What does this fold into?
Amino acid sequence: MAILLILSGGCGENSKTPVKHFEGVAFGTTYSITCIGRYPTDTSDYPHEEIDSLLADLSHTFSIFDTTSIIYRWNKGEDVELNEDFLMVLHISKAVSERTYDAFDCTVQPLVQLWGFGKDGVRHTVSEDTLAAVREFVGIQLIDIQGDSIIRKDPRVQLNFNAVAKGYAVDKVADWLWLHGYGDCLVEIGGEVAVRGCKNGKPWKVGIQVPTKTADGARESFETIELHATDPDLIPEKMFSAVATSGNYRNYFEEGGVRYTHILDPRTGRPERTNLLSVTVLTNSCAHADAYATAFMVLGYERSAQIVRNTPDLEARFILADDNGNWRVIREQ
It folds into this structure.
Protein backbone atom coordinates (compact mmCIF):
# COMPACT_ATOMS: atom_id res chain seq x y z
CA MET A 1 0.00 0.00 0.00
CA ALA A 2 1.50 3.32 -1.07
CA ILE A 3 1.75 6.01 1.56
CA LEU A 4 3.10 9.24 0.06
CA LEU A 5 1.79 12.79 0.25
CA ILE A 6 2.11 15.31 -2.56
CA LEU A 7 3.47 18.66 -1.39
CA SER A 8 2.56 21.73 -3.38
CA GLY A 9 4.55 24.45 -1.68
CA GLY A 10 8.17 25.48 -1.64
CA CYS A 11 8.94 25.13 -5.34
CA GLY A 12 8.78 28.72 -6.46
CA GLU A 13 6.03 28.64 -9.08
CA ASN A 14 6.00 31.46 -11.56
CA SER A 15 2.49 32.88 -11.65
CA LYS A 16 2.88 33.47 -15.40
CA THR A 17 3.57 29.80 -16.14
CA PRO A 18 0.42 27.78 -16.90
CA VAL A 19 -0.22 25.18 -14.20
CA LYS A 20 -2.90 22.56 -14.67
CA HIS A 21 -3.97 20.01 -12.08
CA PHE A 22 -6.50 17.29 -12.67
CA GLU A 23 -7.63 14.19 -10.82
CA GLY A 24 -9.52 10.98 -11.44
CA VAL A 25 -10.05 7.39 -10.39
CA ALA A 26 -8.06 4.36 -11.54
CA PHE A 27 -6.96 0.98 -10.19
CA GLY A 28 -9.45 1.21 -7.34
CA THR A 29 -7.84 4.39 -6.06
CA THR A 30 -7.35 8.02 -7.08
CA TYR A 31 -4.83 9.65 -9.35
CA SER A 32 -3.47 13.18 -9.43
CA ILE A 33 -1.54 14.90 -12.22
CA THR A 34 0.11 18.32 -12.31
CA CYS A 35 1.51 19.80 -15.51
CA ILE A 36 3.42 23.06 -15.83
CA GLY A 37 3.53 24.83 -19.17
CA ARG A 38 3.12 23.25 -22.58
CA TYR A 39 4.62 23.59 -26.01
CA PRO A 40 3.46 26.65 -27.98
CA THR A 41 2.21 24.36 -30.79
CA ASP A 42 -0.15 22.58 -28.39
CA THR A 43 -3.51 24.27 -28.63
CA SER A 44 -5.52 21.48 -27.01
CA ASP A 45 -6.71 21.39 -23.44
CA TYR A 46 -4.77 19.27 -20.97
CA PRO A 47 -5.37 15.62 -21.89
CA HIS A 48 -7.70 14.44 -19.14
CA GLU A 49 -9.73 12.18 -21.41
CA GLU A 50 -6.63 10.67 -23.04
CA ILE A 51 -5.14 9.84 -19.62
CA ASP A 52 -8.40 8.23 -18.48
CA SER A 53 -8.40 6.12 -21.66
CA LEU A 54 -4.79 5.04 -21.12
CA LEU A 55 -5.47 4.10 -17.51
CA ALA A 56 -8.63 2.21 -18.49
CA ASP A 57 -6.59 0.13 -20.95
CA LEU A 58 -4.00 -0.66 -18.28
CA SER A 59 -6.70 -1.57 -15.76
CA HIS A 60 -8.26 -3.86 -18.36
CA THR A 61 -4.87 -5.58 -18.54
CA PHE A 62 -4.05 -5.88 -14.84
CA SER A 63 -7.28 -5.83 -12.80
CA ILE A 64 -7.89 -9.10 -10.98
CA PHE A 65 -11.48 -7.98 -10.33
CA ASP A 66 -12.49 -7.19 -13.94
CA THR A 67 -13.83 -10.48 -15.32
CA THR A 68 -12.95 -9.36 -18.85
CA SER A 69 -9.34 -8.30 -18.06
CA ILE A 70 -6.35 -10.10 -19.54
CA ILE A 71 -5.01 -11.23 -16.18
CA TYR A 72 -8.40 -12.42 -14.93
CA ARG A 73 -8.96 -14.49 -18.05
CA TRP A 74 -5.40 -15.86 -17.96
CA ASN A 75 -5.87 -16.87 -14.32
CA LYS A 76 -9.02 -18.73 -15.35
CA GLY A 77 -7.03 -20.72 -17.90
CA GLU A 78 -8.36 -19.05 -21.02
CA ASP A 79 -6.22 -18.87 -24.16
CA VAL A 80 -5.79 -15.10 -24.16
CA GLU A 81 -3.37 -12.95 -26.15
CA LEU A 82 -0.94 -11.16 -23.84
CA ASN A 83 -0.11 -7.55 -24.70
CA GLU A 84 3.18 -5.70 -24.36
CA ASP A 85 2.27 -4.14 -21.00
CA PHE A 86 1.43 -7.53 -19.49
CA LEU A 87 4.73 -9.05 -20.61
CA MET A 88 6.74 -6.02 -19.53
CA VAL A 89 5.31 -6.10 -16.01
CA LEU A 90 5.98 -9.83 -15.82
CA HIS A 91 9.63 -9.27 -16.81
CA ILE A 92 9.95 -6.52 -14.17
CA SER A 93 8.40 -8.82 -11.57
CA LYS A 94 10.80 -11.66 -12.36
CA ALA A 95 13.79 -9.32 -12.26
CA VAL A 96 12.87 -7.89 -8.85
CA SER A 97 12.15 -11.40 -7.58
CA GLU A 98 15.65 -12.52 -8.54
CA ARG A 99 17.25 -9.51 -6.85
CA THR A 100 15.27 -9.90 -3.62
CA TYR A 101 15.69 -13.61 -2.90
CA ASP A 102 12.14 -14.36 -4.12
CA ALA A 103 10.59 -12.01 -1.56
CA PHE A 104 8.65 -10.51 -4.47
CA ASP A 105 6.50 -12.97 -6.37
CA CYS A 106 3.68 -12.21 -8.80
CA THR A 107 2.19 -15.72 -8.40
CA VAL A 108 0.76 -14.85 -4.97
CA GLN A 109 -2.84 -14.54 -6.17
CA PRO A 110 -3.94 -17.87 -4.57
CA LEU A 111 -2.52 -16.66 -1.24
CA VAL A 112 -4.27 -13.29 -1.56
CA GLN A 113 -7.56 -15.14 -2.03
CA LEU A 114 -6.81 -17.61 0.76
CA TRP A 115 -6.25 -14.91 3.38
CA GLY A 116 -9.26 -12.89 2.19
CA PHE A 117 -7.37 -9.84 0.95
CA GLY A 118 -9.03 -9.91 -2.46
CA LYS A 119 -12.09 -7.89 -3.39
CA ASP A 120 -14.99 -8.67 -1.05
CA GLY A 121 -12.87 -11.30 0.66
CA VAL A 122 -13.47 -12.29 4.28
CA ARG A 123 -10.17 -11.89 6.09
CA HIS A 124 -9.29 -14.74 8.43
CA THR A 125 -6.42 -16.86 9.70
CA VAL A 126 -5.40 -19.97 7.80
CA SER A 127 -4.59 -23.49 8.99
CA GLU A 128 -1.16 -25.01 8.34
CA ASP A 129 -2.64 -27.82 6.21
CA THR A 130 -4.59 -25.42 4.01
CA LEU A 131 -1.61 -23.13 3.65
CA ALA A 132 0.69 -26.03 2.69
CA ALA A 133 -1.77 -27.18 0.03
CA VAL A 134 -1.98 -23.73 -1.61
CA ARG A 135 1.76 -23.11 -1.46
CA GLU A 136 2.28 -26.03 -3.84
CA PHE A 137 1.20 -23.83 -6.75
CA VAL A 138 2.74 -20.52 -5.67
CA GLY A 139 6.25 -19.65 -6.85
CA ILE A 140 7.84 -17.64 -9.66
CA GLN A 141 9.71 -20.77 -10.72
CA LEU A 142 6.40 -22.29 -11.81
CA ILE A 143 6.14 -20.03 -14.87
CA ASP A 144 8.32 -19.61 -17.96
CA ILE A 145 8.20 -16.78 -20.47
CA GLN A 146 8.45 -18.06 -24.04
CA GLY A 147 8.20 -15.18 -26.49
CA ASP A 148 4.73 -13.69 -26.15
CA SER A 149 3.43 -16.59 -24.08
CA ILE A 150 3.62 -17.72 -20.46
CA ILE A 151 3.93 -21.41 -19.72
CA ARG A 152 2.74 -22.50 -16.28
CA LYS A 153 4.13 -25.71 -14.86
CA ASP A 154 1.05 -26.15 -12.70
CA PRO A 155 -2.41 -25.30 -14.11
CA ARG A 156 -3.42 -23.80 -10.75
CA VAL A 157 -0.84 -20.98 -10.94
CA GLN A 158 -2.40 -17.51 -10.90
CA LEU A 159 -0.83 -14.07 -11.24
CA ASN A 160 -1.34 -10.86 -9.29
CA PHE A 161 0.44 -7.65 -10.32
CA ASN A 162 -1.10 -5.40 -7.67
CA ALA A 163 2.31 -4.65 -6.13
CA VAL A 164 3.77 -3.36 -9.39
CA ALA A 165 0.94 -2.39 -11.77
CA LYS A 166 0.19 1.04 -10.22
CA GLY A 167 3.86 1.98 -10.43
CA TYR A 168 3.97 0.80 -14.03
CA ALA A 169 0.88 2.86 -14.83
CA VAL A 170 2.52 5.94 -13.28
CA ASP A 171 5.52 5.47 -15.58
CA LYS A 172 3.30 5.01 -18.64
CA VAL A 173 1.28 8.16 -17.94
CA ALA A 174 4.41 10.23 -17.23
CA ASP A 175 6.03 9.03 -20.46
CA TRP A 176 2.84 9.75 -22.42
CA LEU A 177 2.74 13.30 -21.09
CA TRP A 178 6.43 13.82 -21.88
CA LEU A 179 6.04 12.54 -25.44
CA HIS A 180 3.02 14.77 -26.01
CA GLY A 181 4.77 17.96 -25.02
CA TYR A 182 4.07 18.20 -21.30
CA GLY A 183 7.73 18.31 -20.32
CA ASP A 184 7.26 19.24 -16.66
CA CYS A 185 4.76 17.05 -14.87
CA LEU A 186 4.10 15.00 -11.75
CA VAL A 187 1.97 11.85 -11.87
CA GLU A 188 0.62 10.13 -8.75
CA ILE A 189 -1.59 7.06 -8.56
CA GLY A 190 -2.52 5.79 -5.12
CA GLY A 191 0.60 7.39 -3.65
CA GLU A 192 3.09 6.08 -6.24
CA VAL A 193 4.84 9.00 -7.93
CA ALA A 194 6.94 9.78 -10.98
CA VAL A 195 8.01 13.11 -12.42
CA ARG A 196 9.30 14.42 -15.71
CA GLY A 197 11.20 17.65 -15.94
CA CYS A 198 11.08 19.98 -12.95
CA LYS A 199 8.88 22.49 -11.22
CA ASN A 200 9.99 25.87 -12.55
CA GLY A 201 13.65 24.94 -12.33
CA LYS A 202 13.38 23.26 -8.94
CA PRO A 203 12.71 19.66 -7.92
CA TRP A 204 9.22 18.34 -7.33
CA LYS A 205 8.52 17.45 -3.70
CA VAL A 206 6.62 14.63 -2.01
CA GLY A 207 6.31 13.77 1.66
CA ILE A 208 6.61 10.42 3.44
CA GLN A 209 3.69 9.75 5.76
CA VAL A 210 4.05 9.37 9.50
CA PRO A 211 3.06 5.79 10.51
CA THR A 212 -0.34 5.60 12.19
CA LYS A 213 -1.51 3.26 14.92
CA THR A 214 -4.83 2.62 13.18
CA ALA A 215 -5.89 2.17 9.56
CA ASP A 216 -7.80 5.47 9.54
CA GLY A 217 -5.19 7.56 11.33
CA ALA A 218 -4.46 11.12 10.18
CA ARG A 219 -2.18 11.50 7.16
CA GLU A 220 0.82 13.66 8.03
CA SER A 221 4.29 13.81 6.50
CA PHE A 222 7.60 13.82 8.36
CA GLU A 223 10.15 14.07 5.54
CA THR A 224 10.23 15.75 2.15
CA ILE A 225 11.78 13.96 -0.81
CA GLU A 226 12.88 15.81 -3.92
CA LEU A 227 12.36 14.33 -7.38
CA HIS A 228 13.81 15.83 -10.52
CA ALA A 229 14.16 14.51 -14.06
CA THR A 230 15.39 16.88 -16.76
CA ASP A 231 15.18 14.03 -19.27
CA PRO A 232 13.66 10.57 -18.77
CA ASP A 233 16.81 8.97 -20.24
CA LEU A 234 19.36 11.24 -18.55
CA ILE A 235 18.77 11.54 -14.80
CA PRO A 236 21.31 13.51 -12.74
CA GLU A 237 23.27 11.31 -10.35
CA LYS A 238 21.37 10.61 -7.14
CA MET A 239 18.45 12.71 -8.30
CA PHE A 240 15.68 10.21 -8.80
CA SER A 241 12.46 10.58 -10.76
CA ALA A 242 10.19 8.01 -9.06
CA VAL A 243 9.22 7.00 -5.55
CA ALA A 244 6.92 4.39 -4.02
CA THR A 245 6.09 3.37 -0.48
CA SER A 246 4.78 0.13 0.97
CA GLY A 247 3.44 -0.01 4.52
CA ASN A 248 1.56 -2.42 6.76
CA TYR A 249 -0.51 -0.03 8.90
CA ARG A 250 -3.39 0.76 6.53
CA ASN A 251 -4.53 -2.65 5.27
CA TYR A 252 -4.71 -5.46 7.83
CA PHE A 253 -6.96 -7.43 10.12
CA GLU A 254 -6.56 -8.48 13.75
CA GLU A 255 -7.48 -11.79 15.30
CA GLY A 256 -6.59 -13.10 18.73
CA GLY A 257 -4.58 -9.97 19.45
CA VAL A 258 -2.35 -10.56 16.40
CA ARG A 259 -2.20 -8.19 13.43
CA TYR A 260 -2.15 -9.81 9.98
CA THR A 261 -1.09 -7.46 7.16
CA HIS A 262 -1.99 -7.59 3.48
CA ILE A 263 1.69 -7.94 2.52
CA LEU A 264 2.24 -11.66 2.09
CA ASP A 265 5.58 -13.44 2.17
CA PRO A 266 5.48 -15.72 -0.90
CA ARG A 267 8.15 -17.96 0.60
CA THR A 268 6.05 -18.88 3.65
CA GLY A 269 2.57 -18.02 2.43
CA ARG A 270 1.97 -15.93 5.54
CA PRO A 271 1.68 -12.16 6.14
CA GLU A 272 5.06 -10.54 6.64
CA ARG A 273 6.27 -10.33 10.24
CA THR A 274 9.14 -7.85 10.51
CA ASN A 275 9.63 -4.72 12.58
CA LEU A 276 9.22 -2.54 9.49
CA LEU A 277 6.23 -0.20 9.38
CA SER A 278 6.95 1.09 5.91
CA VAL A 279 9.61 1.28 3.20
CA THR A 280 9.99 4.10 0.70
CA VAL A 281 12.09 3.38 -2.39
CA LEU A 282 13.55 5.98 -4.75
CA THR A 283 14.73 5.04 -8.23
CA ASN A 284 14.09 6.00 -11.86
CA SER A 285 11.23 3.59 -12.55
CA CYS A 286 8.07 3.74 -10.47
CA ALA A 287 7.26 0.13 -11.39
CA HIS A 288 10.57 -1.02 -9.91
CA ALA A 289 10.18 1.25 -6.87
CA ASP A 290 6.71 -0.23 -6.29
CA ALA A 291 7.95 -3.82 -6.47
CA TYR A 292 11.08 -3.23 -4.40
CA ALA A 293 9.10 -1.50 -1.63
CA THR A 294 6.87 -4.57 -1.26
CA ALA A 295 9.81 -6.98 -1.36
CA PHE A 296 11.69 -4.99 1.29
CA MET A 297 8.70 -5.13 3.63
CA VAL A 298 8.91 -8.91 3.38
CA LEU A 299 12.70 -9.15 3.70
CA GLY A 300 13.07 -6.83 6.68
CA TYR A 301 15.59 -4.07 7.20
CA GLU A 302 18.95 -5.89 7.30
CA ARG A 303 18.70 -7.84 4.03
CA SER A 304 16.91 -5.01 2.25
CA ALA A 305 19.53 -2.46 3.29
CA GLN A 306 22.23 -4.71 1.86
CA ILE A 307 20.45 -4.81 -1.49
CA VAL A 308 20.12 -1.00 -1.54
CA ARG A 309 23.81 -0.52 -0.72
CA ASN A 310 24.78 -2.84 -3.57
CA THR A 311 22.43 -1.24 -6.12
CA PRO A 312 23.63 2.19 -7.32
CA ASP A 313 20.24 3.32 -8.65
CA LEU A 314 18.31 2.72 -5.42
CA GLU A 315 17.73 4.71 -2.24
CA ALA A 316 15.37 3.79 0.58
CA ARG A 317 13.83 5.08 3.80
CA PHE A 318 13.03 2.36 6.34
CA ILE A 319 10.66 3.10 9.20
CA LEU A 320 11.18 0.59 12.02
CA ALA A 321 9.09 0.03 15.14
CA ASP A 322 10.36 -0.95 18.58
CA ASP A 323 8.62 -3.00 21.29
CA ASN A 324 7.13 0.15 22.81
CA GLY A 325 5.36 1.24 19.65
CA ASN A 326 7.84 3.99 18.85
CA TRP A 327 9.41 4.32 15.40
CA ARG A 328 12.61 5.57 13.83
CA VAL A 329 13.84 6.17 10.28
CA ILE A 330 16.97 4.72 8.67
CA ARG A 331 18.12 6.10 5.33
CA GLU A 332 20.08 3.85 3.00
CA GLN A 333 21.71 4.51 -0.34
In short: Confidence is low (pLDDT under 50) at residues 8-15. The helical segments are 48-62, 70-75, 84-99, 109-115, 128-135, 165-179, 286-299, 301-309. The radius of gyration is 20 Å. Residues 84-99 form the longest helix (16 residues).
